[in-house]
């Protein structure tokens, strides 16, 4: 630590500063007393509304009960809407599964139809092959110039008639199967159209019900609770 000089305080200067500060504080107190606000004088008047305290309390109690009922009503509507949405989702999934099952059934029927057609074609081919082998040993129609046909020509005619009848029967059965498949396809398409219309109608009804419930909730907010026991209209 270096050398320092001790300065003796000036008592006269300190007293002057203290006097100036005391004078400013006194002036401030005097100013506050002079500018102190006087008493407030108001004209007596009636405050509050036209209802009594008991009636106000009763109205508050009624509003509280109505709010509780509205909350309960909103909660019930929410549960109903949630349940309806779940049921609609379940119906939608069931409809999708039903459509898949119907498409699978149509596919199985088509495959069965194709299998039957292939079986008929194979049977027809084998029958024609057998009849052709029988025709090899029989005389042709243009080579038979005898007056009295023999047993060979009679057998040949019978084989030709049987072959023609068998072919007509196979064609008839094939045509019937095609018509049956066509009728089933038309019936399936008609049924699918009806299910689509039913599903669309159900969705529209559900949307209308949800909209009506929403409008009812809005109306219940703007009108008093008519189900409250103390409601007088």
UniProtKB/TrEMBL annotation:
Superkingdom of origin: Eukaryota
InterPro entries cross-referenced by the UniProt entry: EPSTI1 (IPR026185)
Region (Disordered): 167-205
Coiled-coil annotated residue ranges, if any: 71-121
Bias kind Basic and acidic residues: ranges: 169-205
UniProtKB keywords: Coiled coil
Name of protein: ESIP1 protein
Natural source organism: Hippolais icterina (icterine warbler)
